[in-house]
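Appendix B, example 12.
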Amino acid sequence: MDCFFVALERLKNPSLKGKPVAVGGDPEVGRSVVTSASYEARKFGIHSAMPMAVAIRRCPELVVVPTDFDLYDHYHFRVKEIFQSFSPVVEMTSIDEGYIDLSGTERLWGGPMEAGERMRWTIKQLTQLDCTVGVASTKLTAKIASDKAKPNGLLWVPVGAEAHFLAPLPVEAIPGVGVTTSALLRSFGLEQVGQLAAVGELLMESTLGVTGRWLWHASTGNHESELIPEWERKSISKETTFRTDTTDQQYITAVLHMLTEKVCWRLRREQKAARTVSVKLRYEDFETIHRSRTLSRPENRDPSLFSVAKELMCSAITRRVGVRLIGMGLSNLTGSGRQTDLFDEGEWIKGWHRLEAIDKARSRFGFNAVLTGEAIRLAAQR
């Protein structure tokens, strides 16, 4: 999706169209960074993860809009449903990006170009959002094609043409090649993807090890990795970095409760349950603590899973220094079916109906339409 967060903010407020826009935190408060930047803002060198104060210095006319993850999650699920209408094999790799396996769908949607154009048109009609599509035989090449086609474009790399397409591109075009790897490759005189391919697999591996072998396969367009559809997802997690480090355990607990509700909401939407609960906590000095516990049977209800997560969090907080980050995750996923004990069946059903009502309200009005438990403390701070 093109500038997903900015595009959604422009749907809410059309007056933002054509202006340099950055979605993110208040520059006057703590560690605020740019979450998403419009193409107009990118002309000033503004990009994701840049400190908001730096972004404003580069572009004094920058319009800063606070994040609305409730809205972004809602449209994420709408876009995912559109993807799934084209193929059941969909892997969402982030809130605004995913892969679709269109193998065997030619009679339904036509060839690669026609299918890609149908997908872009459908997304535009149903969401009013622009979408860039890259079509190729491998995930990595499709990703690069999508990056080259932005904004709002479509690029197909035919089977057999991958190496020719990749050859003239800079090595930084390969996802995962960052500043350090790029500098190392350029120190060897390797500046274009085609040069990596020409070096050969053996020399790349003998020089850079496993990374070298991976880079060579990527450079030839032959790097294959299977799509991981959601029914094969191994875990679901969410984490947040506090604007300022905090020692307020009540506040940390409230945030953990909200993260647990969000993770459980997604778990139920995917009709799954989890057996393993994990909590991640990072102190202000970046010491990171992980705690996890495996349950006797799968669970997907907020109260039960939060109770475990809270105990794990309390066991992780052993120092009297500020906490920078808190995260919560569920793994060891299974189907959502449950066998109840005879004597607790009535209470279990009552609690399940309550969660169903909350889930319906959130699906219609957004996650923040209903806050429960410890998370209610956060409402007063908005």
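Residues 139 and 180 are 23 Å apart (CA to CA). Residues 339-343 have pLDDT under 50 and may be disordered.
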